[in-house]
Specification:
266 residues; alpha/beta; TIM Barrel; six-stranded parallel beta sheet; globular
Length: 266
């Protein structure tokens, strides 16, 4: 899954793809690099980011979604917490909704169910506006970060199914960096196999350029390629079925090479 942030303030590439021309060029770039899914978002999820009204989100993303889905034939995910935005983008050709709120608004599940779309449910606690800062969360915030994330995500998934979302259309995102400090995110990734075994849904990992990676590489977001690729490799080896990344070509090359090296008799 390649990331297309149509925002002025995303933590890594805010403002780079805000204009319609730049956003379309980003879609083209992601597809040329081999993205299977294009994830379009019009609202930053960085800590402290203000909520963006649905009308403003749609001004940013709707034509981009339509371009990617209708003109380029891409599989498109809309990254939003808003039922209104999700409904309009699904009608415009998106096939999946990426919800970073862990179903804070149950109207989102109803929209997804009505459209027969897929729903990525990401584990989170609270809103982006309430987040204290990058990888800041109380050390005592979890009894066991893996067990607690599984329990809380499962509860959200059951609510989504009760509201009509097909169980086979759910995808699980553990929510690295969301209501988790760096140590908690690293522990969650380190024990990802436990998550994959426990959750009856494909697992998607979004670790690309995240702040918890600075534990190994204390550099700005755009300079975290090596750490991001390493995290993606680890996640796939642990059983993740999708990785959400900024750098599609480098990640695909690393995954393909890793598979080749582990083939027997090749």
């Amino acid at each position: 899954m390649g990331i297309c942030n149509v925002t002025p303030d995303s933590f890594s590439d805010g403002g780079r793809h805000l204009s319609p021309e730049a956003a379309r060029a980003r879609v083209d770039e992601l597809l040329a690099e081999g993205a299977d899914i294009v994830d379009v978002g019009g609202e930053s999820t960085r800590p402290g980011a203000p909520a963006v009204p649905a009308k403003e989100q749609l001004l940013r993303v709707l034509e981009v979604v339509r371009y990617a889905a209708k003109e380029r034939g891409a599989c498109v995910s809309i990254d939003t917490r808003s039922p209104e935005v999700a409904a309009a983008c699904l009608e415009a050709g998106a096939q999946e909704v990426n919800d970073v709120s862990c179903l804070a608004d149950e109207g989102l599940a109803k929209v997804v169910a009505q459209a027969g779309a897929a729903l990525v449910l990401m584990h989170a606690r609270g809103t982006q506006t309430e987040m204290a800062g990058f990888s800041q969360y109380p050390a005592e915030g979890y009894r066991d970060v893996v067990a607690d994330v599984i329990i809380e995500w499962t509860a959200a998934a059951e609510r989504a199914v009760a509201l009509g979302v097909a169980r086979e259309h759910l995808v699980m995102d553990p929510g690295f960096g969301f209501a988790k400090n760096a140590a908690q995110s690293l522990e969650l990734l380190r024990r990802l196999e436990e998550v994959v075994r426990a959750v009856p849904a494909p697992v998607m990992v979004g670790a690309s350029r995240k702040s918890f990676l600075t534990k190994a590489a204390p550099v700005p977001p755009a300079e975290r390629l090596g750490a991001s690729v390493a995290a993606a490799l680890f996640a796939v080896r642990a059983g993740a079925k999708l990785v959400r990344v900024h750098d599609v070509r480098a990640t695909r090359q690393a995954l393909a090479t890793d598979r080749l090296l582990h083939e027997r008799g090749g």
